[in-house]
Write a structure and sequence with these properties.
The complex is a heterodimer. By secondary structure, chain A is α+β, with helices and mostly antiparallel strands. Chain A has 22 helices and 19 strands. Chain A folds into three domains: about 110 residues, Penicillin-binding protein 2a (Domain 2), CATH 3.90.1310; about 80 residues; about 350 residues, DD-peptidase/beta-lactamase superfamily (Beta-lactamase). The chains are: A alpha+beta, B mainly alpha. Chains A and B meet through helix 1 and helix 2 of A and helix 8, helix 10, helix 13, helix 15 and helix 16 of B.
Chain lengths: ~600, ~375
């Protein structure tokens, strides 16, 4: 019985110990709750928000690019795309097969779609095909019952109304590549496109705008439950360019497939009215994205579609450079308006013979006639008297030898040689013969078409340091240029020569003359060899241009301005391995004058 | 009906009226309060809907409440008399489930009764406690303190524990062993014997490791380092801690738990319901629920101590410990204190068998209280 009492006592004692133990364990739970819910609460609140809040960037619409008359040069177009949502169809393959009956899908596309479907959750729309036409959209909607899971989605894509005609000015946008600086979270948005060339690249920051933010609540599977907050972005700024879309189109069309460049400037403001590099790529294609094969084809094109010849092409200026040499001679006093040279078709210097382009010679030439006929002998002699350094000096005053810096990529500076340059470059002293050929714009001299246009504008303006720009000068705004410190009388002589080139019979561009209500064009032609004519060939007769392969034919150049008495437009035209730069310049200037006069453009 | 028992025991049986009067109303209210909180949480778990869980749970709780009251009014001697029979019956059910599981497809823990799925392992928690209580009621302290005297009770524990382990249901098997351990401790088994078993157990861990299923091994490894597999096995516990911690002191509000309602928190209506509660009602809500549970356990102990018969005392302590283990293991598990072993929070988690078995044990505990003055002989 005692033992039984003990048994009861043991039970009670131990039950109390057990109860205390359990109480203690539950206290541990309270401490743990305190640790997690008070001590570490902030950490876990952050983690919980990270779980549930998904921030999405809202892509702002890209700024629109206008020409000087509010014509759109780059705009945003609604882009229809077909998407597939896996969870809305019972059989993805069946839907895709049905889709293929309406619109073909390449094997690659199908593979990509399936890969994307596998990677994403079943409610995420996967792009099947983009850039659908209206007809295609209608077709899909008509067949909607057979296409469960297919939805049509609208986005914005960049569109260039002028297409290739303004490709090298406007440039294009394309997907962000690995090399692009990712200074903006927008660049991480799938499918986001940035300016890759031209104005699109130059004004990328303002065109892009600022991305907005959308905070969404998502569940564990990533499905959007509701919008928590939305901060609208800032749309890209619109940009007004100095270009005139009508002249730009006209200029491109005038090339008729020839390779070259044409630039027209407003003489008074320096505004770039046309900026053509022909032929060009279609920026609309590049914006959609091209395959590496297509890209290779573009790159290897004989006409260098991707090269902006207006600023990246460096050419001997040829006879257009005689304008600079004539001014250098007049300003330095080595020649005057009456100085004459006799052209017999060739001249000797040491034991070298220098030829005029006209084998039988021009006879006696003064500077105006020498410009009109583009007599080489006169300028050989003028250059001989001046020496290279004075020529180079004058050339630099007209903007040669350094970048014009209009902001586009791959602009070249060209080359104006002098004695110092040659020593630095070759460790050789300058030969007098080199001065001679420099006098007719050959030899080491290299210029870009934009530099030539700048030179033309500076001459036409009466000696102001006109600098080209893409920015439209707003009404009331004025651009003031520095005087170049040239004697007016000397400029008048040169301009007289340039007018005679076009308007006096025997002038090298007489065929391109026009008279529009008394407004005429002035200018200077140029032809540059891209190959050396050997002595032997000269004796046996120079091969006709038409018989040479395209690559070896001469370039044709022209710089000019109009109207002759009160210049408003300056142009530079280059045709690679072809003829007809003066004709293009003439037609372009005439068009500009006609547009000014309120006439309809000539088709 | 009562007279049948009166003949074999001393006549101290209270009348029905006395029984009803001695039912502890506050205890029943506590139970209803906790279950009510559970139903509210199930309503929230379904994003503010009575279906599919809250209404079902309410019905089952109603059934459980009925069963509890019926059991509370049954004479305690009946529980003692049929303890072994009930135990063997449940043991057979366990065998049947095991065999069916092996013959059928994969693991199976329940027998379909048509209106509900019966988990014999839940039944066994009660059956084992009653069987052990009856055994120890009859044995002397001498026998309890001897090695031979605890062989039979050890078998009473290890047979079902082994069967449940084989299902495999490690959580329930461990609960059974812990409950039994507590009872062995209470009846006076010497501490050194626990030491020997514990040591033996520790030595057996490397061997036992081989017999664990991969998912069980994963649970242990994941507990030791949740970041080991943040998207797989560790995901549950990481998300549970985030939900709890982000609830803070005052919680995010009813139906406003982001972790729960956006489905970051798994199993929010069963094993992780306490997490959801803590997320929505904060530390205040969590501690309140914990205190209510502590009070229930405290009442059980008080009933046990007030009872004049050894069987009643021991049965009440055993069943209270079983309930305590639900509460402690579940909370410790969702708080990241112990591995995720799949123990629900009794009275709150959704689940028919658990709520019925817990209500049944409360019924028996009430019966212990109602019949506290009955003196039961040793045999």
């Amino acid at each position: 019985m005692n033992r039984d009492n003990d048994k009861g006592k043991v039970l009670i004692n131990r039950a109390l110990i057990l109860g205390a133990g359990q109480f203690f364990l539950l206290l541990v739970i309270i401490f743990r709750l305190y640790y997690l819910q008070v001590y570490q609460a902030d950490k876990y609140k952050t983690l919980a928000d990270e779980n549930r809040i998904s921030t999405r960037l809202l892509v702002p619409p890209r700024g629109i690019i206008y020409d000087r008359h509010q014509v759109m040069l780059a705009t945003n177009q609604q882009n229809f795309q077909a998407m597939i949502v896996a969870e809305q169809t019972t059989d993805v393959q069946q839907t895709l097969d049905a889709f293929k009956k309406i619109m073909p899908l390449s094997e690659d596309e199908e593979k990509r779609i399936k890969k994307d479907l596998k990677k994403n959750r079943s409610f995420v729309p996967i792009q099947v095909k983009e850039n659908l036409t209206w007809e295609e959209v209608a077709k899909i909607q008509l067949n909607a019952p057979d296409l469960p899971g297919i939805i049509i989605d609208e986005g914005l894509s960049r569109y260039y109304p002028l297409g290739e005609k303004a490709a090298h000015v406007i440039g294009y946008v394309s997907s962000v590549s690995e090399n692009d600086v990712k200074d903006d979270p927008l660049l991480e948005v799938p499918g986001f496109k940035i300016g890759k060339a031209g104005i699109e690249k130059l004004y990328e920051k303002s065109l892009r705008g600022k991305g907005g933010n959308q905070k969404l609540e998502v569940n564990a599977y990533g499905r959007i439950m509701k919008e928590i907050e939305k901060i609208d972005g800032v749309p890209g700024e619109k940009i007004e360019l100095s270009l005139d879309a009508r002249l730009q189109e006209k200029a491109y069309d005038l090339f008729e497939g020839n390779s070259g460049a044409a630039i027209m400037l407003d003489v008074n403001t320096g505004e770039i009215l046309t900026f053509v590099s022909a032929p060009a790529y279609d920026p609309n294609l590049l914006t959609q994205g091209v395959s590496s094969e297509e890209w290779r084809a573009l790159n290897s094109n004989e006409f260098n579609l991707l090269v902006n010849k207006a600023i990246s092409g460096q050419y001997s200026p040829g006879s257009t450079f005689k304008v600079v040499v004539a001014l250098a001679g007049l300003e330095n006093g080595t020649i005057n308006s009456q100085s004459r040279s006799f052209c017999a078709g060739k001249m000797m210097l040491g034991n070298h013979t220098f030829h005029c382009w006209k084998r039988i010679g021009h006879g006696y030439m003064d500077v105006v006639r020498a410009l009109q006929h583009s007599c080489d002998i006169f300028f050989y002699e003028a250059a001989q008297k001046l020496g290279i350094n004075k020529i180079a000096d004058m050339a630099r005053r007209f903007g040669f030898g350094k970048k014009v810096s209009i902001g586009l990529e791959n602009e070249k500076s060209g080359l104006i040689p002098d004695t110092e340059w040659k020593w630095r470059r070759f460790r050789e002293s300058w030969q007098q013969g080199e001065s001679l050929i420099s006098g007719i714009g050959q030899g080491y001299i290299l210029t870009t078409p934009l530099q030539l246009a700048t030179m033309a504008a500076r001459v036409a303006s009466g000696g102001y340091e006109v600098t080209p720009t893409f920015n439209k000068i707003q009404p009331g705004e004025k651009r003031v240029f520095k005087k170049m410190n040239l004697k007016d009388i000397n400029l008048e002589v040169v301009k007289q020569g340039m007018c005679d080139v076009v308007n006096v019979p025997g002038g090298t561009a007489y065929g391109s003359r026009f008279d529009f209500n008394g407004q005429k064009m002035c200018g200077k032609t140029g032809t540059t060899q891209v190959r050396r004519i050997t002595m032997k060939e000269r004796q046996s007769g120079v091969i006709k241009q038409e018989d040479l392969p395209w690559k070896y034919r001469d370039h044709s150049l022209f710089i000019g301005y109009a109207p002759h008495d009160n210049p408003k437009y300056a142009v530079a035209v280059l045709i690679e391995h072809g003829k007809g730069a003066p004709q293009i310049a003439g037609k372009l200037l005439l068009e500009a004058l006609k547009l000014d006069a309120g006439n309809q453009p000539v088709e | 009906m009562y007279k049948f028992y009166e003949t074999s025991f001393k006549n101290q049986t209270p009348t029905l009226k006395e029984k009803l009067q001695s039912l502890s109303l506050s205890y029943i209210m506590l139970i209803c309060a906790v279950a009510g909180i559970g139903i509210v949480m199930l309503y929230s778990a379904a994003n503010g809907s009575w279906s599919p869980w809250a209404l079902n749970q309410l019905l089952r709780f109603g059934m459980g409440l009925g069963a509890m009251l019926v059991l509370a009014l049954i004479d305690i001697r009946i529980f003692m008399r049929y303890a072994y029979l009930f135990y063997f019956f449940t043991l057979i059910l366990l065998v049947i489930v095991d065999v069916m599981g092996h013959v059928g497809m994969g693991a199976q823990r329940w027998i379909n009764l048509g209106f509900m799925k019966l988990q014999p392992s839940e039944l066994m928690k009660i059956a084992m406690v009653l069987a052990l209580a009856r055994y120890f009621h009859s044995s002397s302290l001498q026998s309890i303190e001897s090695v031979r005297g605890i062989i039979v009770p050890a078998l009473i524990v290890l047979l079902p524990a082994g069967l449940i382990m084989a299902q495999p249901d490690l959580g329930t098997a461990l609960m059974l062993i812990f409950t039994a351990g507590a009872m062995f401790f209470v009846v006076g088994v010497q501490l050194w014997k626990f030491g020997v078993v514990l040591l033996g157990g520790l030595l057996c861990i490397p061997i036992a490791w081989h017999f664990l299923y991969d998912y069980q091994k994963n649970r242990v490894l994941t507990f030791l380092d949740p970041e080991r597999d943040p998207l797989g096995a560790g995901y549950h516990i990481i998300q549970s801690k985030i939900a709890l911690g982000s609830g803070g002191v005052f919680g995010k509000g009813f139906l406003k738990g982001t972790q729960s309602h956006l489905n970051f928190l798994p199993e929010k209506h069963t094993d992780f319901i306490f997490t959801m509660l803590s997320e929505e009602f904060g530390m205040i809500g969590a501690v309140l629920v914990l205190i209510l549970n502590m009070l229930i356990i405290a009442y059980c102990y008080s009933f046990a101590l007030k009872s004049t018969n050894y069987f009643g005392k021991l049965a009440a302590i055993g069943l209270a410990t079983n309930f305590f283990l639900y509460v402690f293991i579940n909370m410790a598990m969702v708080l990241g204190l112990i591995p995720v072993v799949g123990v629900p929070l009794a009275l709150i988690s959704y689940g028919g068998t658990v709520i019925l078995s817990v209500m049944a044990s409360f019924g028996i505990i009430l019966s212990v209280h109602v019949n506290r003055n009955i003196n039961i002989g040793k045999d």
